[in-house]
Design a protein that fits this description.
single chain, mainly alpha, two-stranded parallel sheet, 4 helices, 2 strands
Length: 75
């Protein structure tokens, strides 16, 4: 799950500055948390602490996001 405080901050910045690209961070460890931030208006997400627990997190997230955002890419 995306961090609730960070998510509120992303939403506030996206609403206040709609032309500014926002990169979200905090609690990104799976596709659901990444999509929460992207759905809130972030253009990208940062993965940090999750890499300490699973060094393959970025590779897994990239594949999962690609499959969710562009289902034809796997075909």
């Amino acid at each position: 799950m995306a961090g609730p405080v960070a998510l509120r901050c992303v939403l506030a910045v996206v609403r206040a500055l709609p032309d500014v690209p926002v990169v979200a961070c905090g609690g990104v460890h799976d596709v659901a948390s990444a999509l929460t931030y992207l759905d809130a208006g972030a253009v990208a997400v940062q993965v940090g602490s999750a890499l300490l627990h699973d060094p393959t997190t970025v590779t897994r997230l990239r594949a999962d996001l690609a499959a969710r955002l562009d289902p034809q890419e796997d075909a």
